[in-house]
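Thread: Newbie trying to understand structure tokens

Hi all, I'm a second-year student working on a class project, and my supervisor (Dr. K.) asked me to get a predicted structure for one chain before our next meeting. I've only ever worked with sequences, so writing a 3D structure as a token string is new to me. If someone could post the tokens and maybe explain what I'm looking at, I'd be very grateful. Here's the chain:
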Amino acid sequence: MDSVYIIGAGREGQVFAEVIISAGLDLKGFFDDNDELHNRQVFGVPVLGKIKDAVKYKGLFIISIGNNGVRKRIADEINVPKDHYLTVFHPYSYRGIGTKFDFGSICTISSSVGTYVEVGSHVIVSMGSCVSHHNLLEDYVFFGPNACSGGGVHIKEGAFIGMGASILPNITIGKWAIVGAGSVVIKDVPDYATVVGNPAKIIKIKGESLNENTSF
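---
Reply by user tm_fold:
Sure, no problem. This is what the structure looks like when written as tokens:
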């Protein structure tokens, strides 16, 4: 059995550790750039050093950083070969027939991923979430706790789906967009937009604040 290492020893790292341990895998250590965590243990597993030290170890890695942009930056910086990344599923998660996951992704407890879903690399599917049939989740997506998508939804690279958000069928969420917690998305969301509310409305695009009544 390959040794498993988690990059990131914070709260998200603890969630990842619980999934890995529950899946019966051999978790050997964490890496984190917070010096205060070094030489400590999480669930009895040591924090071995800084993130850059991970490349000195042999095994499988997974990046437990909730921020999508930071997760991508770390993946780019450490440049671990694709086949050295772990994809892992909590034993109490569900995956439908024909569903495919790329490297470095995770499904946490009570998450459900439906029939013929395609999930990219370094994607986080959080507890209690429901990704419906024939969805496409591109690389670095975060699908938040208890969020739900209808059939045929396309979520582009780096998009963040907040806790309890709902996305109607056949909607496209643009790359690096943010869907606020509890929002109900009834129309396509542009790239880099932040949307909130029921129905969801754009409040920002690329950091520029918009009129609170802007619709799309």
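A couple of things are worth pointing out once you decode it. The mean pLDDT is 94. The chain has two helices and 25 strands. Feel free to ask follow-ups in this thread.
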